[in-house]
Automatic annotation (TrEMBL):
<keyword id="KW-0460">Magnesium</keyword>
<comment type="similarity">
    <text>Belongs to the thiamine-phosphate synthase family.</text>
</comment>
<dbReference type="GO" id="GO:0005737">
    <property type="term" value="C:cytoplasm"/>
</dbReference>
<dbReference type="GO" id="GO:0009228">
    <property type="term" value="P:thiamine biosynthetic process"/>
</dbReference>
<protein>
    <recommendedName>
        <fullName>Thiamine-phosphate synthase</fullName>
        <ecNumber>2.5.1.3</ecNumber>
    </recommendedName>
</protein>
<keyword id="KW-0784">Thiamine biosynthesis</keyword>
<keyword id="KW-0479">Metal-binding</keyword>
<dbReference type="InterPro" id="IPR022998">
    <property type="entry name" value="ThiamineP_synth_TenI"/>
</dbReference>
<dbReference type="InterPro" id="IPR034291">
    <property type="entry name" value="TMP_synthase"/>
</dbReference>
<comment type="pathway">
    <text>Cofactor biosynthesis; thiamine diphosphate biosynthesis; thiamine phosphate from 4-amino-2-methyl-5-diphosphomethylpyrimidine and 4-methyl-5-(2-phosphoethyl)-thiazole: step 1/1.</text>
</comment>
<dbReference type="GO" id="GO:0004789">
    <property type="term" value="F:thiamine-phosphate diphosphorylase activity"/>
</dbReference>
<dbReference type="Pfam" id="PF02581">
    <property type="entry name" value="TMP-TENI"/>
</dbReference>
<dbReference type="GO" id="GO:0046872">
    <property type="term" value="F:metal ion binding"/>
</dbReference>
<dbReference type="InterPro" id="IPR036206">
    <property type="entry name" value="ThiamineP_synth_sf"/>
</dbReference>
<feature type="domain" description="Thiamine phosphate synthase/TenI">
    <location>
        <begin position="13"/>
        <end position="181"/>
    </location>
</feature>
<keyword id="KW-0808">Transferase</keyword>
<dbReference type="InterPro" id="IPR013785">
    <property type="entry name" value="Aldolase_TIM"/>
</dbReference>
Length: 203
């Protein structure tokens, strides 16, 4: 099973990646919503080339067709995305796959498709988007890790730098950050702090 970097920021534009990836990020998700296809394609291309130049693994959220067409090699799908995605085409194209989960049924479904990582969230209350699920908590992180075994587990949702060590200690292999970076008054300094705090978990 592949080993991914423990620090996994999620960013909503190629412009954010251009600012932050050169600081030493090794794993990043491009998560763009509600933009025209030409904007999506341009941002995916920019992100692809930038990550290749900086030895960073790019994960494209949702847009698996564009990811295939643009030569990307890793996508992330939510449970709703799984309904419409052509998993056969994704696998034939050689793409790695991460899947979101929030409850037992979703975890079983995710594991059935042979994911390259499973994400569990929200671990803590999050302001990123409204969710019907209560915060999962650290005990659930440990339970999920026991169930997924060697599959890397991503903890996501409400995770700040101060909470990251606890999530990793509870069983997550990777911690994902969004607003803790993008809403910070100094995103570059925050990324450097994240890298310093989590790199000890990388092997």
């Amino acid at each position: 099973m592949m080993r991914l970097d423990p620090f996994y920021p999620i960013l909503d534009s190629a412009a954010w990646l251009e600012r932050l990836v050169p600081l030493g990020i090794r794993l990043v998700q491009l998560r763009i919503k509600d933009r025209p296809e030409e904007v999506l394609r341009a941002d995916i291309r920019t992100a692809r080339d930038l990550c290749a130049a900086h030895d960073c693994q790019l994960v494209v959220n949702d847009y698996w067709r564009l990811a295939i067409e643009e030569g990307c090699d890793f996508i992330h799908l939510g449970q709703e995305d799984l309904d419409a995605a052509d998993l056969g085409a994704i696998r034939r194209a050689g793409l790695k796959l991460g899947v979101s989960t929030h409850d037992d049924g979703e975890l079983s479904r995710a594991l059935a498709v042979g994911p390259d990582y499973v994400a569990l969230g929200p671990v803590y209350p999050t302001i990123l988007k409204k969710m019907p699920w209560a915060p999962q908590g650290l005990e659930r992180v440990g339970e999920w890790k026991r169930r997924v075994g060697d599959v890397p587990l991503v903890g996501i949702g409400g995770i700040s730098l101060e909470r990251a060590a606890g999530v990793l200690a509870a069983g997550a292999d990777i911690v994902s950050a969004v607003t803790d970076i993008t809403l910070n008054t100094d995103p570059e300094a925050r990324v450097r702090a994240w890298i310093a705090a989590t790199r000890e978990y990388a092997t």
